[in-house]
């Protein structure tokens, strides 16, 4: 039995505004986070993810304010990621109103950070964002906004962080992100069969068919961004299609 | 003596801000206070979810809050316990076998079956029991690996299903304990907080 599937709109934040681009290049301004987040909540979103794509010192201060503004509006779970390097970084975001924190680059350099977050805040609060890129017949973990390919195999890495206490994996295909080609299903299958914690599929989805395929490949939740930001569809429309495909979701 | 204060216990909980925001939305201002006197005398008390069963109990013991919380629950005074806050009402948990819980219910908290994706980080349908007063049918957001398997004696229980049925919430007097997070369960959760707050 699988958990009830979540649809999770993701807002990429830069300096307090929503941005979205292909492979995080050519960023386009998509508006104010709190207003967007509330509107997705009204459409039936099951959770909101905020990713601070500019994890600079200035961006970080903006990030805290954005988290507070979004929290005031949201009565659904809020996950925040980007630029978390220490337990106190995570603590600041949680105090501002995050329910879960997602760490990425810092975990790769220091897997014990996953264990320390899990023991302080609980596994249910500790998300590890894994950015993957296909290299020959395997997938490698990439860090620093996709600019650096590490020698880590994705399948090995996700098994390791599960042992460290990660409660969820936010899996982004760096090959697919922003391409509208759908999730990398082979990657999803490789990861979901390597762990027994929830995996959130991310990168490349452009329609409800892509989401359904992602769930069939083992995802517990599906991350959506551009298709909502551009108003091509709504969360409730996506949920209707998923229900029709026999996937259990929370009704809107 | 009730002071008229509404108090939330800061037990190092991960999402205190969400609990505070949820109560602000229904017009209730929670004061953060971890003194035994404030906890005992509060008009309404919220015990939010914290990381693990053992960690939550040692924090409550360190703060000398076990006794005032137990007293409130036995007396049926307005108390809301969330997630691990609910689990510590039990005597034991598989999560921290060496730690004794508050023990107002004797049932043991156990992990979900091994073939499930755990933690359950998902919405699930909550089914009120026949005796439920506060819980209405709807969807709650759960974030847990451990749960009570059966409704404890003397409590009105609501259930949800993940693999097998488990306890989603229990109520007695003005005490409400939820395995799900009402502060993260949308309008349904907000309405529930409002009904609980209206008891006192």
Sketch the topology of chain A as an H/E string, one letter per element. Answer: EEEHEHEHEHHEEEHEHEHEHH
Instruction: Note the total helix count of chain A.
Output: 10
Q: What is the CATH superfamily classification of chain B? A: Class I glutamine amidotransferase (GATase) domain
- Classified in CATH, the superfamily of chain A is Aldolase class I
CA radius of gyration of chain B: 15 Å
Averaged pLDDT of chain B, please?
94
Descriptive overview:
The complex is a heterodimer of chains A (252) and B (200). Chain A is an alpha/beta fold and 252 residues long. Chain A has one domain: Aldolase class I (TIM Barrel, Alpha-Beta Barrel), CATH 3.20.20. Helices cover 38% and strands 25% of the residues of chain A. In chain A, α1 (33-43) runs parallel beside α2 (57-73). The longest helix of chain A has 17 residues, at 57-73. With 200 residues, chain B is α/β, with parallel strands linked by helices. Chain B has one domain: Rossmann fold, CATH 3.40.50.880.
Give a summary of the structure in a few sentences:
By secondary structure, chain A is of the alpha/beta class.
SSE map:
The complex is a heterodimer of chains A (252) and B (200).
Chain A: E1 6-14, E2 17-20, E3 28-29, H1 33-43, E4 48-52, H2 57-73, E5 78-81, H3 87-96, E6 100-103, H4 105-109, H5 112-121, E7 126-135, E8 138-143, E9 148-153, H6 154-164, E10 168-173, H7 185-192, E11 199-202, H8 208-216, E12 221-224, H9 226-229, H10 235-244
Parallel strand pairs in A: 1-4, 1-12, 4-5, 5-6, 6-7, 7-10, 10-11, 11-12
Antiparallel strand pairs in A: 1-2, 2-3, 7-8, 8-9
Chain B: E1 6-8, H1 16-25, E2 31-32, H2 36-41, E3 44-47, H3 53-62, H4 66-75, E4 79-82, H5 84-87, E5 90-93, E6 105-111, E7 120-126, E8 138-144, E9 146-148, E10 156-162, E11 164-172, E12 175-178, H6 186-197
Parallel strand pairs in B: 1-2, 1-3, 3-4, 4-12, 5-6
Antiparallel strand pairs in B: 6-9, 7-8, 10-11, 11-12
